[in-house]
Design goal:
It contains six helices and four strands, in the order H-H-E-H-E-H-E-H-H-E. With about 180 residues, the chain is α+β, with helices and mostly antiparallel strands. The chain has one domain: NADH Oxidase (3-Layer(aba) Sandwich), CATH 3.40.109. Strands 1-2-4-3 form a four-stranded antiparallel β-sheet. Helix 2 runs antiparallel to helix 4. The radius of gyration is 17 Å and the shape is globular. The two termini are about 25 Å apart.
Protein backbone atom coordinates (compact mmCIF):
# COMPACT_ATOMS: atom_id res chain seq x y z
CA UNK A 1 0.00 0.00 0.00
CA UNK A 2 1.35 3.45 -0.83
CA UNK A 3 2.12 6.13 1.74
CA UNK A 4 -0.76 8.41 0.69
CA UNK A 5 -3.41 5.72 1.22
CA UNK A 6 -1.80 4.77 4.54
CA UNK A 7 -2.09 8.40 5.70
CA UNK A 8 -5.76 8.51 4.70
CA UNK A 9 -6.36 5.41 6.81
CA UNK A 10 -4.61 6.90 9.85
CA UNK A 11 -6.11 10.43 9.89
CA UNK A 12 -8.62 10.96 12.69
CA UNK A 13 -10.75 13.80 13.96
CA UNK A 14 -9.07 15.43 16.96
CA UNK A 15 -11.10 16.69 19.90
CA UNK A 16 -8.35 18.13 22.11
CA UNK A 17 -5.71 20.57 20.87
CA UNK A 18 -2.66 22.24 22.37
CA UNK A 19 -2.87 26.05 22.42
CA UNK A 20 0.38 26.34 20.40
CA UNK A 21 -0.06 28.12 17.06
CA UNK A 22 1.13 26.08 14.06
CA UNK A 23 3.67 27.72 11.76
CA UNK A 24 2.19 30.16 9.24
CA UNK A 25 3.90 28.16 6.48
CA UNK A 26 2.00 25.02 7.55
CA UNK A 27 -1.31 26.89 7.68
CA UNK A 28 -0.62 28.26 4.20
CA UNK A 29 0.14 24.75 2.89
CA UNK A 30 -3.14 23.46 4.32
CA UNK A 31 -5.09 26.30 2.72
CA UNK A 32 -3.27 25.73 -0.59
CA UNK A 33 -4.24 22.04 -0.50
CA UNK A 34 -7.85 23.19 -0.15
CA UNK A 35 -7.47 25.53 -3.13
CA UNK A 36 -6.44 22.55 -5.25
CA UNK A 37 -9.49 20.48 -4.40
CA UNK A 38 -11.54 19.37 -7.40
CA UNK A 39 -14.54 21.53 -8.26
CA UNK A 40 -17.47 21.20 -10.61
CA UNK A 41 -16.44 22.44 -14.08
CA UNK A 42 -13.37 23.92 -12.36
CA UNK A 43 -15.49 26.85 -11.16
CA UNK A 44 -13.54 27.07 -7.88
CA UNK A 45 -16.65 28.54 -6.26
CA UNK A 46 -15.36 28.41 -2.69
CA UNK A 47 -13.55 30.77 -0.35
CA UNK A 48 -11.61 30.08 2.83
CA UNK A 49 -11.36 32.39 5.84
CA UNK A 50 -8.18 31.84 7.85
CA UNK A 51 -8.79 32.73 11.50
CA UNK A 52 -5.64 32.87 13.67
CA UNK A 53 -6.60 35.91 15.73
CA UNK A 54 -7.52 34.48 19.15
CA UNK A 55 -10.13 37.13 19.93
CA UNK A 56 -11.95 36.60 16.61
CA UNK A 57 -11.57 32.82 16.93
CA UNK A 58 -13.16 32.94 20.39
CA UNK A 59 -16.04 35.14 19.13
CA UNK A 60 -16.80 32.64 16.37
CA UNK A 61 -16.52 29.73 18.81
CA UNK A 62 -18.99 31.43 21.15
CA UNK A 63 -21.52 31.95 18.37
CA UNK A 64 -21.04 28.35 17.23
CA UNK A 65 -21.60 27.20 20.82
CA UNK A 66 -24.85 29.13 21.05
CA UNK A 67 -26.12 27.73 17.74
CA UNK A 68 -25.22 24.21 18.89
CA UNK A 69 -26.99 24.68 22.21
CA UNK A 70 -24.02 23.75 24.41
CA UNK A 71 -23.53 25.11 27.91
CA UNK A 72 -21.57 28.28 28.53
CA UNK A 73 -17.82 27.65 28.60
CA UNK A 74 -17.91 24.79 26.08
CA UNK A 75 -15.52 25.25 23.13
CA UNK A 76 -16.96 23.63 20.00
CA UNK A 77 -13.51 23.95 18.38
CA UNK A 78 -11.88 21.89 21.17
CA UNK A 79 -9.14 24.44 21.80
CA UNK A 80 -7.78 24.47 18.23
CA UNK A 81 -5.93 27.76 17.67
CA UNK A 82 -6.64 27.89 13.91
CA UNK A 83 -10.08 27.89 12.32
CA UNK A 84 -10.37 27.62 8.54
CA UNK A 85 -13.91 28.44 7.45
CA UNK A 86 -14.94 27.19 4.02
CA UNK A 87 -17.65 29.13 2.21
CA UNK A 88 -19.54 28.21 -0.95
CA UNK A 89 -20.80 30.64 -3.58
CA UNK A 90 -24.59 30.16 -3.54
CA UNK A 91 -24.83 30.91 -7.27
CA UNK A 92 -22.84 27.78 -8.18
CA UNK A 93 -24.87 24.53 -8.25
CA UNK A 94 -21.92 22.37 -7.09
CA UNK A 95 -20.47 24.77 -4.53
CA UNK A 96 -21.47 22.78 -1.42
CA UNK A 97 -19.92 19.63 -2.85
CA UNK A 98 -16.86 21.58 -3.90
CA UNK A 99 -16.59 23.04 -0.39
CA UNK A 100 -16.73 19.54 1.07
CA UNK A 101 -13.79 18.55 -1.10
CA UNK A 102 -11.89 21.62 0.11
CA UNK A 103 -12.54 20.54 3.71
CA UNK A 104 -11.33 17.00 3.01
CA UNK A 105 -8.15 18.19 1.30
CA UNK A 106 -7.37 20.53 4.19
CA UNK A 107 -7.92 17.88 6.87
CA UNK A 108 -5.70 15.41 5.03
CA UNK A 109 -3.04 18.08 4.44
CA UNK A 110 -3.06 18.98 8.15
CA UNK A 111 -2.45 15.34 9.05
CA UNK A 112 0.37 15.05 6.55
CA UNK A 113 2.08 17.98 8.34
CA UNK A 114 1.75 16.42 11.79
CA UNK A 115 -1.26 18.52 12.78
CA UNK A 116 -4.71 17.47 13.86
CA UNK A 117 -8.03 18.67 12.52
CA UNK A 118 -11.76 18.20 12.84
CA UNK A 119 -14.73 19.32 10.73
CA UNK A 120 -17.09 21.44 12.82
CA UNK A 121 -20.54 22.25 11.48
CA UNK A 122 -22.90 25.22 11.96
CA UNK A 123 -21.04 27.50 9.54
CA UNK A 124 -24.23 27.58 7.46
CA UNK A 125 -26.20 29.00 10.39
CA UNK A 126 -23.43 31.44 11.27
CA UNK A 127 -23.24 32.97 7.80
CA UNK A 128 -27.01 33.47 7.69
CA UNK A 129 -26.60 36.01 10.50
CA UNK A 130 -26.08 39.71 9.78
CA UNK A 131 -22.85 39.95 11.83
CA UNK A 132 -21.21 37.22 9.75
CA UNK A 133 -22.48 38.74 6.50
CA UNK A 134 -20.90 42.01 7.65
CA UNK A 135 -17.64 40.19 8.35
CA UNK A 136 -17.57 39.06 4.71
CA UNK A 137 -18.29 42.59 3.49
CA UNK A 138 -15.51 43.96 5.71
CA UNK A 139 -13.11 41.54 3.98
CA UNK A 140 -14.28 42.67 0.53
CA UNK A 141 -16.14 39.42 -0.17
CA UNK A 142 -19.15 40.16 -2.37
CA UNK A 143 -22.01 37.89 -3.37
CA UNK A 144 -24.04 35.35 -1.46
CA UNK A 145 -22.07 32.74 0.45
CA UNK A 146 -23.08 29.71 2.45
CA UNK A 147 -20.94 28.33 5.25
CA UNK A 148 -19.81 24.77 4.51
CA UNK A 149 -17.76 24.02 7.60
CA UNK A 150 -14.98 24.95 9.99
CA UNK A 151 -11.72 23.06 9.76
CA UNK A 152 -10.30 23.38 13.28
CA UNK A 153 -6.52 22.84 13.16
CA UNK A 154 -3.75 22.54 15.72
CA UNK A 155 -1.38 20.18 17.48
CA UNK A 156 -3.26 17.22 18.97
CA UNK A 157 -3.04 16.42 22.66
CA UNK A 158 -2.22 12.75 23.23
CA UNK A 159 -2.26 9.84 20.83
CA UNK A 160 -4.47 9.58 17.77
CA UNK A 161 -7.80 7.88 18.46
CA UNK A 162 -8.03 4.28 17.28
CA UNK A 163 -9.86 3.84 13.99
CA UNK A 164 -13.44 2.69 14.10
CA UNK A 165 -14.01 -0.60 12.38
CA UNK A 166 -15.14 -0.07 8.81
CA UNK A 167 -18.75 -1.15 8.27
CA UNK A 168 -19.21 -4.08 5.93
CA UNK A 169 -21.62 -4.07 3.02
CA UNK A 170 -20.81 -0.60 1.69
CA UNK A 171 -19.00 -1.57 -1.51
CA UNK A 172 -20.88 -3.02 -4.46
CA UNK A 173 -19.29 -4.08 -7.72
CA UNK A 174 -20.62 -4.30 -11.22
CA UNK A 175 -17.95 -6.08 -13.22
Amino acid sequence: MNDFIRKLEKRRSIRKFKPDMPAKEDIDLIVEAGRYAPSGMNRQATATLVITNKEKRDEIAEENRKIGGWPEGFDPFYGAPVILIVLADKSCPTALYDGSLVMGNMMNAAFSLGLGSIWIHRAKEEFEQPAFMELLKSLGIDGEWEGVGHCAVGYPVGDLPAPAERKAGRVFRIE
